[in-house]
Every structure is written in C-alpha cells, then in structure tokens.
Amino acid sequence: MGWRSLEEFIRALEVRGELLRVSHPVDVRFEAGCIADRLVKKGGPAVVFDQPRLEDGRISRFPLAMNLFGTRERTNLALGVDEPSDIGEMMVGLMKPDIGAILKRPWTGIHLLRQGISMAPKRVSRGKCQQVSIDDPDVTKLPIPITWPHDGGPFMTLPLVVTADPETGTHNMGMYRSQVFGPKEVGLHWQKHKHGADHADSSEGRMPVAICLGGPPQVIFSSISPLPDNLSEYEFAGLLSGRRLRITKCQTNELWVPADCDFVIEGYTIPGETRMEGPFGDHFGHYSLEDEYPVMHVTAITHKKDPTVPMTIVGVPPMEDGFLGEAIGDALLPVLKFQHRDIVDAFLPLETGFHNLAIVSSKQRFPRQARKTALGLLGAGQMMFLKVVVVVDENHTVKDLDSLLDALESRVSIPDDLVTLKGMVADSLAHTSPWENIHDKLIIDATTPVEGDPIENTDLGPVSNSLAISASAIDGVTQARMLRPSMMVITTEIEGGPKPEESMEDANEHLASLQRERFASIRDSIWGLGASKGLKWLFITDSDADLESEDWRRRLLWQLFCRFDVGRDLHFDGAGTRVAWDATAPIPSEAGPLPVRRWPAVTLHDPDLVQKIDSWLSKRL
Ligand SMILES: Cc1cc2nc3c(=O)[nH]c(=O)nc-3n(C[C@H](O)[C@H](O)[C@H](O)COP(=O)(O)O)c2cc1C
Ligand SMILES: [Mn+2]
Q: What pLDDT, on a 0 to 100 scale, did the predictor assign at position 432?
C-alpha cells in the first residue's frame, strides 16, 4: 500500500538516512535551491529546511522540503515499486483482462476487480488539508524558493493544479509551475497543450482553481504523468496507492481536491486576464522565455496540522525532475507498447530534457516499419513534443549511448535515412524553435534495412585517425573529438554569440549573419580536409562543453539537443552524403533562413554561493 501522506514518506527517508535536516535559517532566495541542486548532482539525500528565511527576512512557520525524489531509488520508494515498469504492467493488466481465462477461473480476476475499485476517488467531508484555515490568506508567507538569479520571482515548482472541465465537471490535476505575483495573485503556467489550458479556454465565466502542495508522493507523481486519455489523475493516484484517493471539497469553490495534501490554495481565474510570467530557469537548462499566462486570484489557504512545503529546482540536467521523468517513461512504456504494437522499447534521456530526443526500437517485419512506428509515436499524447526520434533495431539496447552512436555510425545513410517533418507541434519550452509552439521534427532511421528495401548503407570510405588533429588546427575550432570513425564533434567560440550567463533579447541581423558566415567557414574548412570525405556526422557546439571533462558525454548530449533546431541547424554537403549539426547558441534574427527568437541564458548559480554551499555540504554529508 502506498504512502498516506508526505509526512510519512519524509519520516521513512529519515529512518533510512536519506534526509538532511537543516535547522539553521536558509534563504528561500537562491540558497535553498542551490543546496538542492548540489545535492541532486552528488546523488545526495533529500533535505528539509526547518527555518526557511523569506525574502523580507522573517522565518516561515512552515518547513520546506527539497530533493525528495532526487535519486532513482528514492523515486521508486515514493512510488512503492521495485521498478516503475510494474506500474505500467498493472495498467495493461486492467486494459486487457483475459475474459476467457477469468470465466474459467473466476478468482484470477479478483485482483483486477480490486484494482479497478481502488481507482474511483472517495469523497470525504473534512480533509486533513483543511485542518487549519488561514485568515487573510497570503501566498508570500509560504516558503517558496527563488531558484535562479534571473528568475522573475518566487515560483511554486511542485504545485498540483486542480481545475474542472466547465461542461462535464471532470477534474484534472496537472503540475504547472506557479509564479507568486503578490499575496493573492499567482501566475499559472499551463502551456497551451495541457489540460488546464483546455479548461481555461473553454470556460466562460470565472474558473475555479486550486493549487495543492504536498500530499502523498503518488498524488504528486500522478499530476505530472502524461496519462492515457480517459484516465484521470485522481484515478491513477488511487491505482498507484492501492486504495481510493480521498478527495474533499474546497471551502471557497466547488472543486474537489486530494484530502491528504499539505496545503490547498483556492481561487479563480478570470477569462482573458493574463500577466507576463517568467523568466524562469527551466527544465532545458535555459531560462524559459517570458510570456502572458493567466492569473489566479487567491480566496483561501488551508493546510494540515503540521504541513511541509515540498519544492524542486529545475535547470541544467541532471535534476530531480529527471528522475521523475525517467520513472514516468518506464512506468508508461508498457501502456505505450500496448497501444502501439510495433514499439519494442523506448528511452527518453533526461540529459536532453526528455522532449528533445527519443530512442525507439521497433519491430521490422516489412520495409520502413520503423518509420511508421516513429510517426505513430509522434501522435501519442505528449510525445507530440519530441524533436528528434532515432529508430533502431529490435535488439538494440535503447538506454546505451554507445549503442546509439554505433547505430548512427553504421546504420544510417545520410541521404536516405534522415526524414524531416516540417512545421509540427513544439513544446512551449522549446526555446530553439523558430516560432512559439512550432518546429520541424527529425526522424533518424538507424535500423538495418529489411529484405526487399532498396536502401543500401553506403560506406563513404575510411576516415583517417588524424582528422581530429587536423580539425583542431582550423581557425575557430577549440576542441575536436572523434566519437566514431565517421563522427566528429568540435567545439568553437564564435565571436559575438550569446554567452551562457546572459540572454540575448533583440535581433541583430548584422551580427547574426556574421555568425552564420563564421559557422559556415569552420564547417566548410572541416569538410574540405582530405581526411573528412567519409565524415558522415559533424557535430558543432559551443566551447562551454569541455570535451576532455569527466562528464563530457552528459554535457554534450544536453548541448547537442538543447541548442539545435531541425529546420535551421542541419546542413548537408553538396553531395548530400555528409551532415553538419549546428548546436551553437544562435544570435536572435528575424531575417533567418529561419528566425531565431530571443536566446535565453543558461541556468547558472552565483559561483560564490556554490563555493560556500559546497564547503558547508562537505562537512554535513
Ligand atoms: C517539476 C515540473 C514542473 C512542470 N511545470 C510545468 C509547467 O510549468 N507548465 C506545463 O504546462 N507543464 C509543466 N510540467 C509538465 C506537466 O506537469 C505534465 O505535462 C503533465 O502531464 C500535464 O498534465 P495534463 O496533461 O493534465 O495537463 C512540469 C512537470 C514537472 C515535473
Ligand atoms: Mn490531465
């Protein structure tokens, strides 16, 4: 059976020695988030700040917990499973009851029935989340971190945002970060494609909203899971816990919220009312661009007796949300496979922020089946956000980066196997996309052609080992490294390009075109080297990736996918047999070939703060 409350989970972490309790005051402004970030990067424990210090210097009455799910093991513990795939297997079990077998041996169906029953939420009259009701509610009194230096303010980063379909009343609970604008005003960052936005778009009058904080970990997990249609987050939370989710009615509106949450912030939105939200250091390791989002007006705040406020920090991976995301991937894969029979396995690496890359192994009974698999996947729920899908052979280990490089090396013919899809749906967070919510997608077919397929993998001839050395000598190249005989990555520092620590807001056509010329000249110099005739893949990125550093692979994966746009940044040589992949940060430009919107800074802490925290942590851990 699952956790009944957040408190119970935190206590279990403490018993296991996986909790750091900090009893001295810690600033919610930068300090708490930086500690959580350093902890997750070290694979360290969860942390509870008993005395979070608010921006005005007062100590909050409520403790702040961070990094609760910051390792794979803790995420599994939160979910109460050995492997997240157990969850998906259970869901598939419910989706395909073998009626014939159940009729023969009725008792085998009993556990299905029990699981089915556990899915319906249960209404209770007074939830624990309403034990205390705050007079004159003021959100600024909660310990809500400001995680990054350029953030537009404090953000609730693990909020469970509850809305109801104005017509059917069906409830939705999604995690959409919520910016604190003032004591009674909160920004709701539900992106266009999400259920909360759907409810708001179809609502004519004031729409009730509740933001829940804390609660049993299964409820938190449910709110971020991209569930199959017709399965609600409340039902899924029940399924995860093995018991019906208790829900209770809000005090100032008609919504029903999980009764065992730590806090409920109640309120409403007014149709058409928006306010500039952000910037916010986001999942992709960059600040997400400011934009207009709805405002929630707060009408009540209630909480349980001894509540804790859980929050997270997102930014350059690996971060806590990466572990949650990986668990979601593993948990929902069985369901995806059940719905898409030609998918064998799939993996979305956390380093690429999930939505920028999927590696998918596919059945291949007939020519080009793998491409059909990729297209099907791109139409499945939030998979619509994917930017690059690499399809690989059935026996390929999707989680192994070396196997991926092997497949790109030996099973891709550049002229035949790169399929681009123009003008598709993009994640609102995709800062690289030329237009908001729209980008091109890339399917790379790295499978072995089946019999009857006319594609032959052309061998372009051997690449000399000395290529990296000659490439390093080219003007503008900082480092060069061969990843495979036909695959090289170089780093460069192009003059005038965006610096990691600063965003570039305005288009500068002159500098942008100079930058494009500099890039082209480096690329062409490399392609001009005699030894590079067989160089199928040339990856070019900024020199803030150090190709000699210990974790260069993770860093490279992040840069190659989070600074690259399919439509703008793939360049083919004259013969079409070699490709250059531009993952350098571009200068904003409207003229294009394709536009570059504002280019956001990378999420970076103040180096002095990092040093201070590292030295303190080295004594505590
Ligand atoms: C820490 C964290 C923060 C998130 N913030 C947002 C956000 O601000 N806006 C958004 O649209 N989705 C955000 N998401 C993703 C959604 O929670 C996720 O897509 C969820 O499935 C949406 O639910 P829905 O399909 O019911 O809309 C976040 C996820 C996590 C783990
Ligand atoms: Mn939903």
A: 97
Q: What is the pTM of this model?
A: 0.96
194, 225, 284, 312: residue to mutate for ligand 1 pocket, most atoms within 8 A of CB: 194
String of DSSP letters for 25-46: -EETBTHHHHHHHHHHHTT--E
In the chain, % of residues over pLDDT 70? 97
Q: Which comes out higher in pLDDT, residue 289 or 3? A: 3
Protein residue whose Cα sits closest to atom 18 of ligand 1: 224
As a residue count, the chain comes to 621
Ligand whose nearest atom lies closest to the CA of 381 = 1
Tens digits of residue pLDDT in 300-350: 999 999 999 999 999 999 999 999 999 999 999 999 999 999 999 999 999
Report yes or no: 296 and 188 within 8 Å, Cβ to Cβ.
Answer: yes
Assess contact for 294 and 184: CB atoms under 8 A: no
Residues 444, 448: Cα–Cα separation, whole Å? 12
DSSP state of 381: G
CB atoms within 10 A of CB 269: 23
Give 426-455 as a 3 state SS string.
CCCCCCCCCECCEEEEEEEEECCCCCCCCC
